[in-house]
Write a structure and sequence with these properties.
By secondary structure, this protein is an alpha+beta fold. It is built from four helices and four strands, in the order αβαβαββα.
Length: 103
């Protein structure tokens, strides 16, 4: 596991929904349902009610509905965006490369 292998890395997860199941603006109930679907993880699941997150990400080329997995630096710089669910191994390499470049 990444965190066990790299305890020095400031790392955490968060989920922000930018649409509900019908493609509209999500609300707190949508975030709670998604959190439950993820088996009630320890990280937060929020809703971007006014869909601001879409403005930040811009056109990332992902078909909707889908999940956008975003790697954000401690300085709030978007380092990478991938679509869909599944393994996040691709992100760990990007995180380590960013930290190495900071040294």
């Amino acid at each position: 596991m990444f965190l066990a292998d790299h305890p020095e890395v400031p790392f955490s997860y968060a989920v922000s929904l930018y649409q509900d199941a019908q493609g509209g603006a999500p609300d707190g109930d949508d975030a709670f349902a998604y959190w439950e679907d993820l088996n009630e993880p320890e990280f937060p699941v929020t809703s971007s009610i006014d869909q601001d997150i879409r403005q930040v990400l811009g056109n990332v080329g992902l078909g909707l509905p889908t999940a956008a997995n975003v790697v954000v630096s401690p300085e709030m710089e978007i380092l990478a965006i991938e679509g869909g669910h599944g393994s996040d191994e691709w992100a760990f390499e990007i995180i380590l490369e960013h930290l190495s470049a900071q040294d």
